Structure prediction request, 588 residues.
Amino acid sequence: MATQMTKAVGILAYGSLINDSGDEINPLITERIPCITPFNVEYSRKSKNRDYAPTLIPVDIGGAAVNAVILVLNDSISLEEAENMLWRRETRELDKNRKYKKKLNPGQNSVQIKILENFQTVDRVIYTSIGSNLDDNSPNILAALAIQSILSNAGNAGTDGVRYLLNAKTNGITTPFSAEYENNILEHTKTTTLEAAIHKLDSQRISELAKAAEYMFLFDKKERTLQGPADYNADIYAYYNDSARLDVGCVRDQLEIWFAKYPQNEKEELKSRVKATFNPAIFELFIFALFTELGYSLEIHPEIPGITKRPDYFAKKGNDVFYIEVKFMTMLSQNEQSLERRKNAVLDAINKVDASNFLLKLEDISFKDSSQPSGKDIIRYFNREIANYSPDDYTERLLQHGFDSMPEITYEDDKIKITTKLLPKSPLHRGTNSRSIGAHPTVTQIGNDSEDIKGSLETKATRYGNLNAPYIICLNKQSVGLDLIEVQEALYGSLQISWSDNPNNREEKMEFAGNGFFGSKNNPKFTRVSGVYITNANTANLATTAEHAFRHNPFAKYPIAFVIDQPIKELLHIPEDYPLKKLPDLNF
Prediction:
């Protein structure tokens, strides 16, 4: 009985490698064997070399086994040589002396070479595997990335995402996302074939209009290296744009999902405001995303006859129409904001103190005037004082006598007084520098913010005169939770007990005093406002403590039937572990 001859080494190609194996590998191919991948594949990574176009990678969840080709190499090629060549091809390494080195703990962006033994008559078949860096690889996001790549340098080089998808389709590679991914590209380019889309987008790239194409992104496409938390006085947009932290990348991805749905002709203006005033502008984007998910179409900055001012949105759904004004609530006055900036500058300076052996517990910071203290003087002082303490001796004393008995270290000059105590690091963490602030003073709030809520609403209540449709105000108040009692008091007034004069039946009952934003039946206020939406949502708490509520004005000139009864997490499809899940940075 004849035995089937086996081949020594082959390379499993399931993407661009099928048609473009590279100058080093291509001359060594002796045979091509069609097969099916023994693992699932999906468009789950964006490639820097393709201007961040989606590419196919092996996946553990989702995807599908797809058509592939084994590139059988010349028998003279060893497994090690094949691994080196495949690694150089995948990493675009031009130096042929560079070799693949297997990593024990490969990172998300590490190209790994894996081996299949005795696969399809080939002794050893190697293939590449690399981690996913797309949290959201839904077809509309894939299409956005592919279109953006063809409008970039990758389009000139022919290595863009649209051509990548076309080549995969030509090779019979189909994943669960392939059809809808293609349809999204055709829909956005108003074409009927990928070939036509490529021709149209290639033409568009030639003009300056390509720079402001339909898929403008909120954040830059770039490699990110900035680690650690933001400085206290950091520019928020700049930090989000530069940070390589995985949780910040997750937040960036979520904001890009919302921004992708924002009207093209309004994106540039919104992006400029996000850069200038991050939190208020992002809340405006949040409201757009929220009401869009509720089924409304939103006109941005609609014109109001007779006045130059414009509200943020005009919402429509069937016969329901209403105006929306967005307000991000600022709790601090101008003087308080100025003080906060000076305080943050001091905190940033303290964080540069040598923290090799100790962290600092801040007890108190008191400014003596309105000028900015010297950060360099503060750093020098604390470095000198901390050097006098042995972490072992300090720890022993702390264990014997307790924290209250430990000495304070106080910096004082004519501008500021800073009182601190030391927190010794464990021996395991000594010698490693880090931010030096380990604990802040405890802040306790007495009372609630109902008056501040009323004040913020009043600044928007009459801004646009007498409108001819319902008008709602969307307010963001930053707090750990949304205090509904506080909201009720702000809108309807403080709770009070009322009773009858009849001594035989006093009929005691709790009711609102009517001194809230909406007033009372006998003294209605701001009747042009039909209702108020309020939330504590921010970029970090969408899956955890973000709450919201809508309250109707019972005395509104134009009552509204609007109801919101789903949590933010459900309405906006926020993952359960957002943003704590270690997600990759989309590098938008």
